[in-house]
Amino acid sequence: MxxxxxxxxxxxxxxxxxxxxxxxxxHDVQKREVKKLPALRGRTVINLFFEDSTRTRSSFEIAGKWxxxxxxxxxxxxxxxxxxxxxxxxxxxxxxxGVDGLVMRHSASGAAHxxxxxxxxxxxxxxxxxxxxxxxxxxxxxxxxxxxxxxxxLEGKRIAIVGDLTHSxxxxxxxxxLSKLGASVVAVAPPTLMPSGVAEWAKADGFATSYTLDDVxxxxxxxMMLRVQxxxxxxxYFPTSREYTVGYxxxxxxxxxxxxxxxxxxxxxxNRGLEISPEAADAASSRILDQVSAGVAIRxxxxxxxxxxxxxx
Amino acid sequence: xSLLIKGASVLGAExxxxxxDGGVIREIGTVSATADEVVAxxxxxxxxxxxxxxxxxxxxxxxxxxxxASGAAAxxxxxxxxxxxxxxxxxxxxxxxxAVSVWELGREAGLADVFxxxxxxxxxxxxxxxxxxxxxRSRAGxxxxxxxxxxxxxxxxxRRALEYVKAFGGVxxxxxxxxxxxxxxxxxxxxxxLSGRLGLPGxxxxxxxxxxxxxVMLARHTGSRVHVAHASTAGTVEVLRWAKAQAEKDGSWAVxxxxxxxxxxxxxxxxxxxxxxxxxxxxxxPAEDVEALxxxxxxxxxxxxxxxxxxxxxxxxxxxxxxxxxxxxGLEEALSVVSTVMVSSGLLxxxxxxxxxxxxxxxxxxxxxxxxxxxVGEPANLALVDPAATYVVDxxxxxxxxxxxPWHDRKLTGRVVSTYLRGKQTYAG
Lengths: 313, 429
Known about the structure:
The structure holds 2 protein chains of 2 kinds.
Chain A: H1 13-29, E1 44-49, H2 55-66, E2 70-75, H3 80-83, H4 87-95, E3 101-106, H5 111-116, E4 123-128, H6 134-148, E5 158-162, H7 169-180, E6 184-188, H8 198-205, E7 208-210, H9 213-216, E8 222-225, H10 241-248, H11 252-255, E9 264-265, H12 278-281, H13 288-308
Parallel strand pairs in A: 1-2, 1-3, 3-4, 5-6, 5-8, 6-7, 8-9
Chain B: E1 2-10, E2 15-21, E3 24-29, E4 37-40, E5 45-48, E6 50-55, H1 68-77, E7 80-85, H2 96-109, E8 113-116, H3 132-137, E9 144-145, H4 155-165, E10 171-174, E11 189-190, H5 193-198, E12 202-203, H6 206-222, E13 225-228, H7 234-250, E14 254-259, H8 261-265, H9 287-299, E15 304-305, H10 314-317, H11 334-343, H12 350-365, E16 382-392, E17 411-421, E18 424-428
Helix pairs in contact in B: 1-2, 4-6, 6-7
């Protein structure tokens, strides 16, 4: 794999399977009494978060620590621009302290990509604006693949990704990763929450789109609900929460449209009652907590592959 | 100080000599007189000095990015003898005193005539008219008014501005961006497939087109003059085509428009790497818009090329793409870009270049000493161009204080070799 993980574009289908295989080994560490591997002993990783995040930051922190890395969390809330310092100066300063790897979240699309151009240490994109969240997509794919029967099991499967696609980096990464794993994606949203140019994009990348969730649910092998990102909306994307839920929420009634045992995913945090009902979130087929657990394993795998080096592999 | 330019091709016509004395063209033809300076110009094209309707010189307020003097030097290097300096400085050029200050800085530099553009509204706030008439009556003689960087989005304010400047023949140059459809600051990428993929906030073409359409109707209603700054879409071209036909029929109002060199050549796909060098407002558009803009410039629907030269200090571009400053340099390479795009393809000849980069911009701005024919008795504001020169742009050779140059490492054809302001050489390449 490449030196950075900025986008799902950086990893091939084969590399994704390598990451999954390593993640499966890492996953077993979670069951041990002593959750520690020596792979990154003596390495320092900085989690530089320009945007609030509890679960992703914690997940990377635990992953790093279980690999014996020294993990430093730095919050740089607000854009560096608003403080007068350029992004370049901020990251050069932070990483000049002998850092071996940078995990970065930023509210601006492309920020991790730009930063990678200024640094000579691995950069892992922990979410950049509305662009990508590659480790989330990897953990989603890993969770689904385990659920559906192991390597190759996503081949030919139909996966619905539902909700606020416009603002979703999870969607943008997942549509790439699931396609690389052989699944076909159907993206479901009201027209106002479809990304611009989605028709050409879908045609080029081979996924489908739909405005009608009820038509899609009966035919899918998994459903991935997305959070409605109200904080990114300046208004007018849909009339009311009630209308959104009626059209696009995974309600108790809609659960009945899914085939038996179809996995339900959500990257969290959930707006219960808006995009997902409590019955769906807590259903036996819900894999939402599995995603959280898989997140640590995937991030351990990514950190290991990027930072441990060939000699440790 | 006399000057003899020997064997130049005036506007691309047959080679001839041009004799200048006292800042005025005295003789054209086979000149036998000697001069203090003789320039061998065989193979070179002689144009009237270029006029830029749209330059950002950053002084006062951001002298680290550009000063009037450094901007004027860059202008001279691009063949310009006159530039109109936009009002969005800090403080804003919205009073006669501020306008005169910029004008005087230009006189002191002596490299190009710097004509300040006055703000339409106080502080560019879009609410109250600035002192438009006082700016016009000042020594700076302001004729063009613009809140560039922001749109005069309130139709009532725009209507009053158009009415008010009729008293002294002013023109309102509009930055056409409906801020509801393309919010200031955040909308930073042409809205389309690429912005969807990159997760960048889109700036749809229609946000420009609705303002252009509204403004031409307001100009028609008020019988005034509106100028469309940096037209960037095929839709805008369609509106302009209709508006110009109506204006000609009515005869009581006028619409003019400009296009930038970067919108004539660069396309939105350059943003795929999130390089803020290519972040500009309005954004780079798809190839079909670029084609429409070229055709419109060739057929006169778009009147002029204007650079929107927007220097930025390095640290203002070294942010995440959405946080980085909008704008790119343009003065030094504008002629080369027009030559590469329009002349090499046959869309314009050199007389056409003179029209869109000198004569018409000067007419729009009401500048008497610029954009004049290369003829006996006219001021010797001239640009000498090597039409065959091919070169690779090196941003570190720029005379601007900034380096946000979108043409860096790009091969261009046609290059300014000398510029003369009233017979005095202001640039020697």
